[in-house]
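Table S7 (text form). Paired inputs.
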Amino acid sequence: MSLASIRSYERLDLALEPGLVLIVGPNGVGKTNLLEAVHVGSQGFSPRTRTDAEIVRFGSDAGRISLRGDRAGAPLELEVTLQLRAAKRAKLNGATLRAAEQLRLQVGALVFTPDRLAVAKGSPAVRRAYFDRVLGRLTPARSSLPIEYAAAVGQRNAALRRVAAGVSSREALAPWTERVTTLGAALVETRIETLERLQPKFERQGEALGLSAAQLQYVGEPPSVPALEDRIDRDLERGATGLGPHLDDISIRAGARELRRFGSQGEQRIAVLALLLAEAELLAERGTPPLLLLDDVLSELDAARRAALAARIRDVGQSLVTATAADALPVDPDQLVEVSPGSARPV
C-alpha cells in the first residue's frame, strides 16, 4: 500500500503480508489512521467521517491512497485521490470509476472500531442502519431496498403534510400507502432472512468468544394497508408515518437477556465481534474472504478471549489488528508492523 498526504502520513509505502497483521504503537501515532486509509482505499469512503477534508493531511490540498494485491489469484490495483475542493476520484486496475464507492462492490472489507459498540448498546436507528448494510453485502440484488423504502416513506410523509395543510385530499395518500406497504413488507422479509442467515454463525462465533446463547431477534411486523389507514389521523397530526420497518428494531441477546439493557460492555463488544465474524464467514462462503480491519479490538478482552479471537480471524482472509503493544495478542501474528509518528515499518 502507498499513502501520500493522508492524515498522519506525509508519505508511506508499506507491504502487508497475507494472514494476521498486528499493528502496534503508542496511542496517537497513527494506527487508526492507517486502518482508515485502507478502508478508504478499498471501499471509497471512511468508516469515521463522510467529510473528505478530514482524511487529507493538515496543510495539504490533496491526498492519495494506492493499494495493490490480488483477488482470487488475479492482480488488483485500487487508487483513491482526495481533493479539498473537488470530488474524490477512484480507479480500479487503472480504469476510472464513476464513483469511489463502487470500490466496495469489488473488494469486501469489514471494520471494527470502538464506536461500533453502538450496534449493541445504541439506538434502534443504529442497529437498523448496521443490519441494512449487512443486508446489502449479503444480498447485493436487494441492496437498494432500504433506500427505496425510505424514499417511499418520505413521499408519504410529504403527502400527509399536504393533506394536513388542506392543499390535498386523503385519496392522494392511497398510492403512497400502497407503496410503503409493498416495499415495507419486502424490507421486513429481507431483514428477517438476513438475520436467519447470520444466526447460526453468530451463535457459534459468540460461543467461541465466551458469549453463550447469542441470538438475533427481529422486533417489528410488516406494514399493511389496513394498519396504516387505522392510524391515519395520528399520522396526519404528526406529519409522519408512524408504522413500518423504519421504526423497527433488532434485539441482540444472550439467551433471555437483551444486551442493550442487560449486557456488560465486554459482552456488547463480543456480540459486535461475533456479528462481524459471522458476516465474514458468510461472505467467504460466497467467494473471496473480506478484509478485516480491527481497531482497538483487544481492549476489555481477557487473554482467553484474545486467543479465541486470534484463532477465528486467522481463518478469514487478511486481518489488520491494532494494539498498543505486541503482547496484547497472545499468539504470534503473521506480520508485526510498528507505527511511530509519520511512519510504519515491519519488524
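Next pair, protein 2 of 2.
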Amino acid sequence: MRVAVVGLGGVGGYICAMLNKGGVDTVGFARGTHLKKIQKDGIKIIEDTHEWVADVEAMELDKAEGYFDIVLFCTKSYDIEDTYGKIAPHTDKDTILMSFSNGVENGTLLRKLSNSIVLDGCVYILSHIKEAGIIRKKGKVFAAVFGGDDKKVINSLERIFEKGSLRIKISDDIKKQIWKKYIFICAFATLTSYYDNSIGYIYKYHKDEAKQLLCEIASVAKAKKIDIDQEIEKSLDTASKIPYDSSTSMWLDFKNNRKTEIETISGYIVKEGSACGVDVNLMNKMYTKLRSASC
C-alpha cells in the first residue's frame, strides 16, 4: 500500500520517518526550507537517547504523482481543506483518509470534502521541528488512536502502523478519545500561549487556572453528550510528569509569529460554549487576548 503523509512537522515528520524505516512505501509532503533540507539530507529524528536519519521521498504537494491508498493529514487544522484539494486527484472512494491535526471536527470536515473512506483519529506525541530537516521528539510518548465501523479498513491501517513500529490503539468510541486528547491540548495550548511559557511552568504556577480551563472544556463536551470529566485530573497529572520545558505547537507558532490554530483550539470552545449555554469565561478571556495577537 502507498501512503501519503501530508505535513512533515513534529507529528508527520516522525510518522513518515518511522514508516519509511519500516519499509512502507511512503511519500511525505512539505514545503520551503524544511522540504529542501529533507530532500538533501533526509529527516533527522533526535530522541532523548539517540538520533537517526530516514531517507524519505519528499516533495511539494503540487508535485504529487500516482495513487495513494492511505493519506494521513498532519498539517495544521486550518490547512486541511486546501491540502485535501491538492491531494484529492490522487485518491478515490477506496482511499483511507485520516487527520492527526488538532481539533475535534477534522473527520467531519474531510467527510464533507470527500467521498473517500474517512477515519477519525488522534495521536499522542511530544515533538516539534527543531530546525529545517530535524524533528525533536521528547520522551517515550507515542500512540496513534483511531476507530471506525469497517474492520477491514481498520486492519489495513493497523498493519501499516505496525510495520513502522508505531504504537496504536483501536477505539470503539473514537469521538470520546479525540476529546480526551483535545481537552489537554486545548487547555495547555491556550495557557502556554497566554503566559508565554512551558507546560511545566503552567502546572507549577497556574495550576488552578489550568483546572478551571479543563473544567470548562469538559462542560462543553458534556453538553455534546461526551463525558470526559475524568480527564480533568488525568490532564493535570500528565502535565506534572512530562518534561518541564515541554511546549505546545500553538505556543511555538505565537513565539515565531506564524499563523496559529487559535480558532480550532481556543475559539472552538468559546463558540460551542456560547451555542450550548455553557460558562467558559476564562477561556473567553484568554481567547480574546490571544486572538488580538494572532497572525
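The beta strands are 2-6, 25-29, 43-46, 51-54, 57-59, 70-73, 96-99, 117-131, 134-147, 168-170.
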